[in-house]
Every structure is written in C-alpha cells, then in structure tokens.
Write a structure and sequence with these properties.
Elements: H1 7-20, H2 36-39, H3 45-63, H4 67-80, H5 85-97, H6 101-114, H7 119-131, H8 135-148, H9 153-165, H10 169-182, H11 187-199, H12 203-216, H13 222-233, H14 237-250, H15 255-267, H16 271-284, H17 289-302, H18 305-318, H19 323-335, H20 339-355, H21 359-371
Helix pairs in contact: 1-11, 1-15, 3-4, 4-5, 5-6, 6-7, 7-8, 7-9, 8-9, 9-10, 9-11, 10-11, 11-12, 11-13, 12-13, 13-14, 15-16, 15-17, 16-17, 17-18, 17-19, 18-19, 19-20, 20-21
Length: about 375
C-alpha cells in the first residue's frame, strides 16, 4: 500500500526538487578562446595582428577570472571582426557568468545569426532563456541544439528539466532517456527520471532508478532526497527518515534542502519532523522565506496559532509577494479572533492571487472574506 500525497502537493514538491538541480552548466567557453587562429579571419595584416593580440589578452583575462576586462576585449574584437560568431559566443559566456542573462541572450543570438548550424550556440541560448524563466523559448532552443547534434548531452538534460517542470512527463522521460544513451552513467538523467516517476506516483520504480543512480554518484544529496519521498509514499517512515538524514549529511549547509525535507514531511503528515527540518533550515539561513512559511503551516496544523502568526509575519516580511503566506496569516489570525488583522491579510492575499492569475485561490480568499462579514 502506498501513501498518496495528493496530486497538487506531490507535484509542487517534485517540481521544486527538479528545479533545484538547476539548468545544466554551460560548457567552458574558454575553449572558444584558446586559439586566436579560430577567430582571425581574412583581415589586413595590421588589423589581424591587433585582433590576435586582443583575443590572446581576452583569453588570459578569462583564465584569470577578470571577466570585466575580458568582456571589454571581446567587444573590441567584435568591432574588428563583426562576422565572427565565436567572438559573440564568448561575449555571451562572460555575460552569463555574471548573471546578465538578457545580455547573454543577445550575444548568442548574434552568434547564431552568423553561424546557425552551431549546436553549442543553440544550447547556450537555451540555458540563458531558461535562466530568465522563458521556458518555451528555451525548449525551442534546446530542441534546435539536439536537431543539430543528436549527441548533445546537456541539451537533452535541459529539455528533460524544463519539460518536467511543464508537466510534460513522457516527453521529459524521452529526453532523459536520450541523455542516458549518450552517457549511461549520467546521474542527472537518472535522478530526473526518478523524480518523474515520483510525480507519476510510481515509488517502487523511482526507488529502483534512484538506487542505481546512487551507484554512480554517492555524493549527490538529491538522490537520497528523492528516495526519502519514495519511501514515504510506501509508508516506510524509517527508511524515509534515514534517506533524509543522508541527504542532510551530504549537504549540511544547504538551508533550501532542509526546507524541502520539511515540505515533504509536512505533506506526509509528519508534522513534528517537518518542524524540526524547518528549524534547521532557518538556523542555516534565517532569511529563507519558504522555511518560515513552511514552519508556519506546520504550526497552524498543530493548532499553535500564535507561533503560526509570528512565522507567517516573518515569511511575508521576507517575501511580500507570497500570497499563500498572507492567506495562511489570515487563517491564523481568524483562529485567534483577530478579525481586522485577518481581513487585511486576506485582502492582501486576494490582490496578489488576482495579479498572479490564480483564479481558484481568488475564489478561496473570497469565501474567507465573506465568512468574516459582520
């Protein structure tokens, strides 16, 4: 017999776990800058000499991690050789390393305009689009990359990640399976498949896949985290808690990991264990809003409304756009007969849910507001 978390709760948990893996890292673009001969085109001798000097200096600056200077040099190189796609790809790489994803997108689009058959450029474009949350465009870019190179491992991993996030589980499985055909020991692909199986409420299959992934990588906290969820779904509390403890041991300073463990335990009805996990998360990072909201939800479930109110207030202070935290605050205040304060919290939740287009939650808050009418 398996434990069902409920589709919405399990989906939220698994999606959070999948997203926490991050988009596959871009290949080191320093390779693109290792040979100035790759860049130099047919230029007059003096101009070519300047281009080669600039590119050599840019490569040295990348190796020294002086990205601001390297960017300036590549921009000069682009002026000298505006039809060189690799120069623009290097600019894109530097922008991405600095978190300037929109600028990176523009650079990679320029590179692709010059060299549309380069799969690495398409992959890098997808990476940066995904980093900005432009998932549909990122999926298109990743598909372009695998069409240009059907052995592009990172593009398949990126596809699997984003398709899973969009609840396209069969397509996500296919992408991860393609990645495994390229690299049979790839733990990102196996872990991704494991999380999809959890979403499909197939804990036995997920355990098999994740245990095999652990044979190739016994240092990833994501694997025992996924195993813990699977064991909870099988009502094997002891194995689940052991798996979560293993995950925490592998990544002891990761507050988000503790918050995720708390969320899983909370969804399984393990309220005391969930509170302990949230407390560890807050101890590691007191500024983590999801940990405060999670512990507030747990306190509310226990009927400890005073503690819930304090935790919800901290969650809303840290993330004033969290509609669910305001809704929970309203409920806790209502339970303590603090009508006016509850009205204010519900009204804030109502406004945020409206802005976010969450109609079902808007109706839920409307009912709560109506219940408070004199």
């Amino acid at each position: 017999m398996t434990h069902s978390f409920g589709k919405s709760i399990l989906g939220a948990i698994v999606t959070t776990l999948v997203l926490s893996t991050g988009v596959p890292a871009m290949a080191q673009s320093t390779k693109m800058a290792q040979s100035t001969n790759l860049y130099a085109q047919s230029k007059p001798s003096a101009e070519q000499q300047e281009l080669e000097t600039v590119l050599k200096d840019a490569r040295d600056q990348i190796e020294a991690k002086n990205f601001a200077r390297a960017l300036s040099l590549f921009e000069r190189a682009a002026q000298l050789d505006p039809q060189n796609a690799r120069i623009f790809s290097s600019i894109g790489y530097i922008q991405a390393t600095q978190g300037r994803y929109q600028e990176a997108i523009q650079a990679y689009q320029q590179a692709i305009a010059i060299d549309p058959k380069n799969a690495d450029f398409a992959y890098a474009l997808g990476f940066n689009l995904a980093s900005l949350g432009q998932e549909n465009d990122a999926i298109t870019a990743y598909r372009t990359a695998v069409n240009l190179n059907n052995r592009h491992l990172n593009a398949y991993l990126g596809l699997g990640l984003l398709l899973t996030r969009q609840n396209q589980y069969e397509a996500g499985l296919q992408a991860y399976q393609q990645a495994l055909k390229i690299d049979g020991q790839n733990t990102d692909a196996r872990t991704g498949i494991g999380f999809i199986l959890l979403e499909q409420e197939r804990p036995d299959d997920a355990i098999n896949v994740l245990q095999r992934a652990a044979k190739f990588d016994n240092q990833s906290s994501r694997i025992p985290l996924g195993l813990g969820i699977a064991y909870l779904m099988r009502n094997d509390r002891t194995s689940a808690l052991q798996s979560f403890e293993r995950a925490a041991q592998l990544d002891p300073r990761n507050a988000k990991l503790q918050a995720q463990i708390g969320r899983v335990l909370q969804a399984a009805g393990e309220t005391e264990a969930a509170i302990a996990a949230y407390q560890r998360a807050i101890l590691l990072n007191n500024g983590l809003p999801e940990a405060h909201r999670g512990i507030a939800d747990s306190y509310f479930q226990q009927g400890d409304y005073a503690s819930a109110i304090a935790a919800y207030r901290e969650a809303t202070r840290l993330d004033p756009e969290d509609a669910s935290a305001f809704y929970g605050l309203g409920q806790a205040l209502q339970a303590r007969s603090q009508r006016e304060a509850a009205l204010q919290a519900f009204q804030r939740a109502y406004k945020l849910y409206q802005q976010q287009g969450q109609e079902e939650n808007v109706q839920r808050v409307q009912a709560a507001l109506k219940a408070l009418e004199p």
